[in-house]
Amino acid sequence: MTNDRIQRKLKAILSADVKGYSALMGRDDEFTVTTITRFREIFAALIQKHQGRVVDSPGDNILAEFGSALDAVTAAIEIQRRIGAENEKMPAKRRMEFRIGINLGDVLQKDDRIYGNGVNIAARIEGLAEPGGICISRGIYDQVKKKTVEGFEYLGAHHVKNIDEPVRIYRLLLSPGQEGKRTNTVASLKTIKRPVYIVTGVVLAVIGVALIWLLYPSSREAEQDALTQVAMPRSEKPSIAVLPFKNINGDQAQAYFSDGITNDIITDLSKFRELFVIASNSVFVYKDKPVKAQQVNRELGVRYILEGSVQRASGRVRVNAQLIDARSGHHLWAERYDRDLRDLFAVQDEIVQTIVATLAVKIDAEERARVMRKDTENLEAYDYVLRGWEYYWRSTRSANSHARRMFEKAIEIDPHYTTAYVGLGQTHMAHFAYGWTEFSDQALQAAHDLAQKALHLDEASAPAHALLGEVYRYWMQYDLALKEYDRAIDLNPNDANSHAERGAILNYRGETDAAIEALETTLRFNPHMRPSNYMQLGLAYYLKGRFEDAIEILERGLSWYPDDVFIHIPLAAAYAQDGQPRNAARIAAKIRRLHPFFEIDHYGTAFVRPADRSRIADGLRSAGL
Question: Is there a domain that residue 30 lies in?
Answer without folding.
Answer: yes
